[in-house]
Every structure is written in structure tokens, then in C-alpha cells.
Backbone:
């Protein structure tokens, strides 16, 4: 069964940091770009960052310079280091293939208090 499980969310003060992890299983990890997406309450889901197996990365303008994506192919895990967090980063964060597959995992909630 294909699974992409996000974890690492929590409550943090503005200016703080969190690291999210995305553990993959059930598919050939190296063959896929993996992305982080987020959905704030009442808003559309949006792409945050992604990385392919060669290490190329993409960041949304809203997180450039604050978030860093990385992947460990040996562990089939993608990370999202989030620094200088802002209240507007409060969302449920999901990981998925990019382009995303139809099925989404549960996500992990990040709450940034101002």
C-alpha cells in the first residue's frame, strides 16, 4: 500500500522553528518528486515546496528563505525545516507526490501563535 505520512507538527511561537518529516512506503521512492502542501482553515490547499530525487528544489514565494526541503532516499523520508515561522504559516501540512496523487494522507497541524 502506498503511504506518505507527515509528522512533526505542533504549536510554536512566531519566529520559532519546526521540522516536519514525511515517511514514504509502498512505492519506488527514488522515482518520484515529493512535495509539501498546506491548507489553512477555509482556504484552498497550496504547494509549499518540493524536491526530486536529484535534489532539485522548489519553494513558494511565501516561504523562500525560511523553509528548507531535503530528502534522504535511503530512509525514504522528506523533511521540511521551517524557520522564522509566521502566524500565516498556520495550516495542516501534507506531503504527497508532485504532481500529487489523488489520495492524501492525514497531514500534520502546525499552529504558529503570534
Residues:
Amino acid at each position: 500500500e502506498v503511504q506518505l505520512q507527515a509528522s512533526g507538527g505542533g504549536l510554536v511561537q512566531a519566529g520559532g522553528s519546526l521540522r516536519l518529516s514525511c515517511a514514504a512506503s509502498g512505492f519506488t521512492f527514488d522515482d518520484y518528486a515529493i512535495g509539501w502542501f498546506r491548507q489553512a482553515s477555509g482556504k484552498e490547499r497550496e504547494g509549499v515546496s518540493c524536491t526530486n530525487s536529484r535534489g532539485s528544489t522548489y519553494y513558494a514565494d511565501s516561504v523562500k528563505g525560511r523553509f528548507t526541503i531535503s530528502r534522504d532516499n535511503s530512509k525514504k523520508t522528506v523533511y521540511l525545516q521551517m524557520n522564522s515561522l509566521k502566524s500565516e504559516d498556520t495550516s495542516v501540512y501534507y506531503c504527497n507526490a508532485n504532481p500529487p496523487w489523488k489520495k492524501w494522507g492525514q497531514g500534520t497541524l502546525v499552529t504558529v501563535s503570534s
Remarks:
- The first strand starts at residue 3 and ends at 7.
- The mean pLDDT is 96.
- The radius of gyration is 13 Å.
- The chain is about 0% helix and 50% strand.
